[in-house]
Amino acid sequence: MNKDLTMGKPSTVLWLFCMPLFGSVIFQQLYNIADSFVAGKFIGTEALAAVGNSYEITLIFIAFAFGCNIGCSVIVSQLFGAKRYSDLKTAVYTTLISSGVLCGLLMLGGFLFSDGLLALINTPANTFADSKLYLDIYILGLPFVFYYNVATGIFSALGDSKTPFIFLACSSISNILVDIVFVSVFKMGIAGVAWATFICQGISCVLALIVVFKRFASIKTDNKPKLFSKDILKQISVVAIPSILQQSFISVGNIIIQSVINSFGSAVMAGYSASIKLNNMVVTSMTTLGNGMSNYTAQNIGAQKHDRVKEGFTAGFKMVCLICLPLAVLYFFCGRSLVYIFMDSPTGSAMDAGVQFLKIVAPFYFIVSVKLMTDGILRGAGMMRQFMISTFADLIIRVTLAIILSKTSLGYTGIWMSWPIGWSVGMILSLICYKSVNWGTR
Question: How many Å apart are CA 276 and CA 29, to the nearest integer?
Fold first, then answer.
């Protein structure tokens, strides 16, 4: 059901819109968590390390899919708020075409350079083959990743956050079951983990696109929309390219950090693989709430209701604080039990590394949540330069400190400490950029 985010009390509108988004991303993260769970429990520590190692490279591809999602979503939100429905449809068709071309190029590059990327991040010999196999199968499924992301961006732009939630809930649960069957029953090893994700993502993508086109049929226009527009592509690119660069540089930064972690051996790799999945569930959830703020901001700017953006900031601030607090407490005090989900033994250096990571970063989830929520408003308002400044500052600080501190007596503990410092600087910069705008008169 399409929903106008320019009407109603901002706090109520945001809660009703963002909660299904929050649920959706939880199920989205279950894809990777299921892979790590099955790999660690049913195959072994080396398989868990291989999935975690490959995951950092897959984030590069996800960065491009995410950029297509955000670029389409923000522009479609603005057009929906302005009730320019013919241009809205053209924006969607333009995104589908350009995303397909971009996806094809990335698949070609992925197959050609996956070995080199794995070697670049110092993938140990005992996990290289499994990492390569998992990554190759993932690349085959990139069209599903791209078009599903575009579809969810369209739903969000139209104010519909419930439909993606339903799709992800069903596909994520299915993925867990298929993972277990392929690995424990058919003995497919790491390939079973990858193929299960491929199949379930494919089904979700196809169903989501079917619903998108059915939804479009109900939106009436005065004239037949064009299938492609260079002008609209430029508008989408203004938002998409910085978002792609943001996510890509974050992914490259994570790969650099992963290469530093790999130098400490497969045990620390496995501990990090388990804990970073848990960490990413929180960060990605807050990123998705930030995306919801982008849709809210874009619709209201499209409708020339700029004063509602400031009201949305206050409501969004309260929302992310209420959500991240219990997660921070859970991870800090129950980290060992959560990391144990991915491992056969509750002792050893792998467990210690994973638990220590969560204890260091969990108290700072409030900081990164506020940053990501503020980033969402900046992006929805088209303030991409300010958005990029805060993001790159966070990333550069994290990567630099991870490299430097890992060479001190702190060892891999120094790597974990780089997260809170980068988040804090990024949040301060985001808030400064937001406060510099008079939202009542913009």
Answer: 11
Beta carbons within 8 Å of 91's beta carbon, 6+ residues apart: 72, 75, 76, 79, 229, 232, 235, 236
Separation of alpha carbons 355 and 174, rounded Å: 29
Distance, in Å, from the CA atom of 125 to the CA atom of 16, rounded to the nearest integer, reads 49
If you search the block for the tokens 């990501």, which residue do you land on? 372
CB atoms closer than 10 angstroms to residue 363? 14
Cα dihedral angle (66, 207, 176, 60), rounded to 10 degrees?
A: -20
Mean pLDDT of 340-357: 78
pTM score, whole prediction: 0.74
- Those residues with Cβ within 8 angstroms of residue 334's Cβ, 6 or more apart along the chain or in another chain: none
What is the rounded average pLDDT for all residues in the chain?
Answer: 87
Task: Specify the 3-state DSSP secondary structure of 409.
Answer: coil
User: And the tokens for 8?
Assistant: 């109603």
Helix 45-81 vs helix 190-217: crossing angle, to nearest 10: 10
3-state secondary structure of 440: coil
Q: Two tokens at 307? A: 């004063």
Q: Phi and psi dihedrals of 83, rounded to 5?
A: 60, 35
Contact 159, 17 (CB under 8 A): yes
Structure confidence by residue, pLDDT tens digits, 176-208:
889 889 988 888 888 998 899 899 889 889 999
Burial of 128 (0-12, 13-18, 19+ CB in 10 A): middle
Residue 321 one-letter amino acid: C
Mean pLDDT for 251-262 is 82
Q: Enter the DSSP assignment of 224.
A: P
Q: Read off the DSSP letter of residue 347.
A: -
Structure confidence by residue, pLDDT tens digits, 105-136: 999 999 999 899 888 878 888 889 999 999 99
Q: Is the per-residue pLDDT at 167 higher than 60?
A: yes
**% residues pLDDT > 90 (the chain):** 35
- The secondary structure of 261-281 as a DSSP string is HHTT-HHHHHHHHHHHHHHHH
| pLDDT tens digits, one per residue of 35-93 | 777 887 788 777 877 877 787 788 889 889 988 998 899 899 889 888 899 999 999 99
User: How far is CA 39 from each of CA 133, 240, 341, 348, rounded to the nearest angstrom?
Assistant: 13, 34, 11, 18
Q: How far apart are alpha carbons 405 and 417 in whole angstroms?
A: 8
Q: Nearest Cα to 288, choosing from 2, 28, 3?
A: 28
C-alpha–C-alpha distance, residues 325 and 332, integer Å: 11
What CA–CA distance (Å, rounded) separates 51 from 406?
23
